[in-house]
Automatic annotation (TrEMBL), chain A:
The lineage of its organism: Bacteria, Bacillati, Bacillota, Bacilli, Bacillales. The keyword ATP-binding does not apply. Belongs to the binding-protein-dependent transport system permease family. Its main location: membrane. This is Carbohydrate ABC transporter permease. The chain crosses the membrane at residues 27-48, 87-114, 126-145, 157-178, 199-222, 274-293. It is a multi-pass membrane protein. It is found in: Cell membrane. Pfam families: BPD_transp_1. Keywords: Cell membrane, Membrane, Transmembrane, Transmembrane helix, Transport. GO terms for biological process: transmembrane transport. The keyword rRNA processing does not apply. Residues 87-293 form the ABC transmembrane type-1 domain. Coiled coil: none annotated.
From TrEMBL, chain B:
The chain crosses the membrane at residues 20-42, 79-103, 115-135, 177-196, 217-238, 270-290. One of its GO terms (biological process) is transmembrane transport. PROSITE patterns: ABC_TM1. Belongs to the binding-protein-dependent transport system permease family. It is a multi-pass membrane protein. Keywords: Cell membrane, Membrane, Transmembrane, Transmembrane helix, Transport. Residues 75-291 form the ABC transmembrane type-1 domain. This is ABC transporter permease subunit. The keyword Calcium does not apply. It is found in: Cell membrane. GO terms for cellular component: plasma membrane. Its main location: membrane. PANTHER family: BLL4140 PROTEIN.
């Protein structure tokens, strides 16, 4: 009798402890969900706030507050942007630079990667040392600038394309992927008389679309977002990509705003309107490819981890 | 004889070699020629010279940097911003990834992840433009601060030099914290779930599980990321600085990279700017070696433990 009582006592003790644990975990989960909800709002709402502002009429832009929807929906800001031919031009330059840049980068890098994927390639060790060196050393801003100058790439559209034709990191990723392709496929094509180029273009590339897409997407985001190339090497405004154009708009708006707050000159709000609408326009392509990007995050992160 | 053999083999591989050689030429031209160009740090280069013909001046450019007040100002700013980034920007993704990991798989987890990765893909120009709008006198930050009663009237944060370090660090954290979780989440998904099951049976709470299972198993990846972060300490983000800097906040905003840009490309003092850049890369390399040494020790201790 006594022992049975003891056992049940222990049991209730245990279940009390268990209940306490479950309660603790429930509290943890609730706090966690609340915290992450607040975090998510802090990330997304400021972006949405800009979108709301960009669709507000110029009079209401300065008191949008924490609205979720424009007080007075208006397309005036966008009309201002679309009436500016230089912004159109920059948008086209960005599209051109991204499309040409991605296609050439992927093709050249894949071509080199295919050659490097062959273990018996003569000089392969030397090529590898040369390539690994590029991952650790660089000449820095000024020597690179001098190189671009002597190559005649200053103020040329090709400065967006040629210096980013090839990347050793991307090469490594592609090379590792090509190695996974079964050798028998290539062998049978060889017996049928196919040369290296035919095998590369008809067999290797079509079988590698996922990894090619990954490289293309990340390179595309780089090309679209890059303004540093223009800032460093381009002074002709006709060649500015949208990001560089936006940079200029921001600098001008900022200068005006700072003057306004230090002196008391009132400046028309059109520059802020243009800035907001241009930000949204420059971001739309990124948002459009975002679902595809997300599909390839992990492999992309591995590129990033090596790179930084 | 051997050479001949090599030539023969090479010729047989010619199509394959033709695929690789463009890449090799690319790397020599766009990476190794600029590395050679670093010699102008020890020369007095002017626009009319070639790199080879410019006269040698030894360590003169480094001496000038040593006495340059504005260079040291940029060093202080870089260190301050990088230190704060290390403190907040390095720990935040670790905490966030643990919290996300603790969520049960479901739509909420997906939403949190999708949204938190997004800012990484926006350019610094776009984020800079947004930031200027949020921080302007009519922006959301002032709306909130005035609304809650912390401020009596809106302040223009962008012209206050003293706010700049925090603006730079917090905006960087906002942009990259979500993206930073990916590598930790990938590591955590590789942890054997039986550890957690065993801990649950032993009655470990969630917090105990985090501190006694998740974190110790992430030690290696955390120290790896830490070494990488330390390597970047002197290389504060140039994109970010160029968008956010203005004449009123430059005393706190100028970092080494933007100073190199200003002196080198805006003022044309190529040799001096190259010398500053070189000095910074050498110090960065030393920092990485030292950090690597210490984290190695830490990981050894772990295996003893």
């Amino acid at each position: 009798m006594k022992t049975i009582a003891n056992v049940s006592e222990v049991n209730t003790n245990l279940s009390n402890k268990k209940n306490k644990k479950i309660k603790e975990n429930r509290v943890f989960n609730i706090v966690n969900i609340i915290f992450l909800t607040v975090f998510t709002i802090i990330i997304i709402y400021p972006i949405w706030n800009i979108v709301v502002k960009s669709f507000s009429s110029p009079d209401t832009i300065s008191h949008v507050g924490l609205r979720l929807w424009p007080e007075e929906f208006s397309l005036v800001n966008y009309k201002l942007v679309f009436n500016d031919p230089t912004i159109w031009n920059s948008f086209l330059i960005s599209i051109l630079k991204t499309v040409v840049g991605v296609v050439t980068h992927v093709l050249l890098t894949a071509m080199v990667a295919y050659g490097m994927s062959k273990q018996n390639l003569i000089g392969r060790n030397f090529y590898t040392i040369l390539g690994v060196g590029t991952m650790f050393f660089s000449g820095g801003m000024i020597p690179t600038y001098l190189l671009m100058r002597s190559l005649g790439l200053l103020d040329s559209f090709w400065v967006y394309i040629i210096p980013s034709l090839f990347s050793y990191y991307d090469m490594l990723i592609l090379m590792n992927f090509f190695r996974e392709i079964p050798n028998s496929l290539e062998e049978s094509a060889k017996i049928d008389g196919a040369g290296v180029w035919t095998i590369f273009s008809r067999i290797v590339l079509p079988l590698s679309t996922p990894v090619l897409a990954t490289i293309a997407l990340f390179n595309g985001v780089y090309q679209w977002n890059d303004y540093m190339t223009a800032k460093l090497y381009i002074s002709n405004e006709a060649l500015y990509p949208i990001q560089m154009k936006l940079y200029e708009i921001i600098v001008q708006t900022q200068a005006a705003a700072n003057m306004q707050s230090t002196t008391s000159v009132v400046i028309p709000t059109t520059s802020e309107s243009i800035q907001l609408a241009t930000i949204v326009i420059a971001t739309v392509p990124i948002v459009l490819v975002y679902p595809f990007l997300q599909k390839y995050f992990i492999s992309g992160m591995m590129i990033g981890a090596v790179k930084e | 004889m051997k050479n001949n053999h090599f030539g023969k083999g090479f010729r047989a591989q010619l199509p394959l070699q033709m695929m690789v050689i463009p890449g090799i030429i690319f790397m020599i031209v766009f990476c190794y020629i600029p590395i050679y160009g670093i010699v102008i740090a020890f020369k007095s280069y002017s626009v009319t010279d070639t790199i080879a013909s410019a006269p040698w001046v030894g360590l003169e450019n480094f001496k000038i940097a040593f006495e340059d007040k504005f260079f040291w100002e940029s060093v202080v700013n870089t260190l301050a911003i990088s230190f704060l980034k290390l403190l907040i920007g390095f720990t935040a993704p670790i905490i966030l990834s643990i919290l996300i990991f603790e969520l049960k798989n479901g739509w909420f987890k997906k939403v949190v992840q999708t949204i938190s990765y997004l800012p990484h893909f926006l350019s610094w120009i776009v984020v800079g433009g947004m930031l200027l709008s949020w921080l302007s006198t009519s922006g959301i930050l002032n709306d909130i601060l005035v609304g809650v009663g912390i401020l009596d009237q809106p302040r223009n944060f962008m012209i206050e030099a003293k706010s700049y370090w925090f603006i730079a660090v917090l905006s960087d954290v906002w942009k990259e914290v979500g993206w930073g979780t990916i590598i930790y989440l990938a590591t955590m998904s590789g942890i054997d779930p039986t550890y957690y099951e065993a801990a649950k049976i032993d009655g470990a709470s969630k917090l105990q599980q985090i501190f006694h299972i998740t974190l110790p198993l992430m030690k290696f990846i955390i120290s790896l990321m830490f070494i990488l972060a330390v390597g970047g300490i002197l290389g504060s983000n140039l994109d970010q600085t160029l968008v956010l800097i203005n004449p009123l906040n430059s005393s706190h905003a100028e970092v080494i990279n933007s100073y190199v840009y200003k002196v080198g490309l805006a003022q044309g003092d190529f040799s001096y700017a190259t010398a500053v850049g070189l000095a910074v890369s050498i110090v960065s390399l030393i920092l990485v070696v030292i950090t690597n040494h210490f984290t190695k020790k830490m990981n050894d201790n772990k295996s003893v433990f």
